[in-house]
Amino acid sequence: MIRKLFTFIVLFIGCTFSVMSQNSLSYRGFSGGMMIHSGILESRQFNIISENGTIVSTNNVSGMPFGIGGSARLHFGKHLRVGGEGYVSNLRYGVKGTTSSTSWGGILVDCIWQFDKWWPFGGILVGGGAVEHIVLNNEPSIDFIVENNAAYREYAFMAIAPMVGVEYALNEKIHLTFKMDYVINISNPQADFPSGPRFFLGFMFYRLDD
User: Fold this and answer.
1) CA nearest 85: which of 15, 18, 179, 10?
2) Is 199 helix (H, G, I), strand (E, B) or coil?
3) For the segment 84-106, what is each residue's pLDDT rounded down to a tens digit?
4) Helix, strand, coil proportions of the chain in percent (round to 5)?
5) Measured CA distances, 152 to 101, 102, 123, 137, 144 (Å)
């Protein structure tokens, strides 16, 4: 995985410098919009431990999340885009009420090409985020009753997220957007961190100079 990521980053940096050397990087305009997403996520196994140190259960986060977020970019030359984006992703699994929530965002750099109405792109996000994880070992049966078998944790992390995607130009100002990314925790690996591809669908609104 690390080798593939390193190869991707090297190729992307090489592509970016190639684009910069071959094209004028004059400012052309901006784009931005919102996207929803889902995906296929899974973590490693982790233990839930009681106050006296015994293992209550062994779990792993697994399933399809749902989330929302958006991005905004400045366009330079024919291909280069620089901006930022941020998302929140919620995954419910196991016992009712158990939820893993991941939020992340950062600086985005990508390259885009235009083939008639189809605009493929690839890039990388560098930033950070946080995980909030609530685990219930027994399904609650009565409202407003304190649960004994519940665990909570949260932690921050630095992240990189390589991505590829394509936009379809409905007209000059509105694009339908599909992309896939993979958020990688590079600073604070945790057994309950949910990893996997996420798939995004949404609309981008453009204002570009000719």
Assistant:
1) 179
2) strand
3) 999 999 999 988 889 999 999 99
4) 10, 60, 30
5) 12, 14, 34, 12, 17
pLDDT in tens, 118-142: 999 999 999 999 999 999 887 776 6
Query: Is residue 164 classed exposed, middle or buried when 0-12, 13-18 and 19+ CB atoms within 10 A define those classes?
Result: middle
Work out the burial of residue 179: count CB atoms within 10 Å of its CB; fewer than 13 is exposed, 13-18 middle, 19 or more buried: buried
Output the DSSP codes for 77-111.
TTTEEEEEEEEEEEEE-SSTT-EEEEEEEEEEEEE
The DSSP line for 115-164 is BTTEEEEEEEEEEEEEEEEEEESS---STT---SSEEEEEEEEEEEEEEE
Q: Considering only CA atoms, which of 80, 84, 82 is closest in space to residue 71? A: 84
- What region does 138 belong to: left with phi over 0, alpha with psi -120 to 50, or beta? beta
Residue pair 102/154 in contact by the 8 Å Cβ criterion: no
Please give the helix or strand (H or E) that residue 29 lies within, else none. Answer: strand 27-39
User: Side chain identity at 160, as an amino acid letter?
Assistant: I
Residues in Cβ contact with 89 at an 8 Å cutoff, skipping those fewer than 6 apart: 37, 39, 65, 66, 67, 101, 102, 103, 198
Distances (CA, A) of 192 to 58, 154, 165: 11, 11, 28
- pTM reported for the whole predicted model: 0.87
Cβ neighbours for 26, distance < 8 A, ≥ 6 positions apart:
76, 77
- Size of the chain in residues: 210
- The CA distance from 160 to 183, in Å, is 6
